């Protein structure tokens, strides 16, 4: 069980999986990932039922990077104050690997933002095109 988990709150959500050694630890708590993954169907439903107006691409990516760096700084601050990592696997990797991990997650967040923007535009541009086709008078 990770140091950030509250057993009283998460007792029904916690599962453990054995991980083989090159990772240097024997189990990973999957409750956190399962909890965050269950939101995906609702995000997809919302994307289909509600058009989102995205800011300019540079503003959106700047916001994502700012959030990401802020979150990484918070994770490092919690480790500095408590001596424990919010994500226990960070204890088992070196500083260079942590930097690579944090950089990779920031890149992944940017990719997911762009994917959401592209999907939103595809879904709603397609729907707009279909509505315009219905409104046009048919030529015989």
TrEMBL record:
Keywords for the protein's UniProt record, in alphabetical order: Membrane, Transmembrane, Transmembrane helix
Any one annotated GO CC term: endomembrane system
Cross-referenced Pfam families: Far-17a_AIG1
Membrane-topology descriptor: Multi-pass membrane protein
Reaction catalyzed: 12-(9Z-octadecenoyloxy)-octadecanoate + H2O = 12-hydroxyoctadecanoate + (9Z)-octadecenoate + H(+); 9-(9Z-hexadecenoyloxy)-octadecanoate + H2O = (9Z)-hexadecenoate + 9-hydroxy-octadecanoate + H(+); 9-hexadecanoyloxy-octadecanoate + H2O = 9-hydroxy-octadecanoate + hexadecanoate + H(+); 12-octadecanoyloxy-octadecanoate + H2O = 12-hydroxyoctadecanoate + octadecanoate + H(+)
Subcellular location field: Endomembrane system
Classification via InterPro entries: ADTRP_AIG1
Family: Belongs to the AIG1 family.
Protein name from the UniProt record: Androgen-induced gene 1 protein-like
UniProt organism field: Carlito syrichta
The encoding gene: LOC103251364
């Amino acid at each position: 069980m990770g140091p950030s988990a509250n057993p009283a709150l998460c007792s029904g959500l916690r599962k453990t999986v054995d991980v083989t050694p090159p990772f240097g630890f024997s189990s990973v708590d999957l409750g956190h990932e399962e909890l965050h993954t269950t939101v995906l169907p609702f995000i997809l439903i919302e994307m289909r039922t509600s058009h989102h107006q995205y800011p300019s691409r540079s503003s959106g990516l700047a916001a994502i990077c700012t959030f990401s760096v802020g979150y990484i700084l918070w994770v490092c601050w919690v480790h500095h104050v408590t001596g424990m990592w919010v994500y226990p696997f960070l204890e088992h990797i070196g500083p260079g690997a942590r930097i690579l991990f944090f950089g990779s997650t920031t890149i992944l967040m940017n990719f997911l933002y762009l994917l959401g923007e592209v999907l939103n535009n595809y879904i709603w541009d397609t729907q707009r095109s279909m509505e315009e086709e219905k409104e046009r008078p048919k030529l015989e």
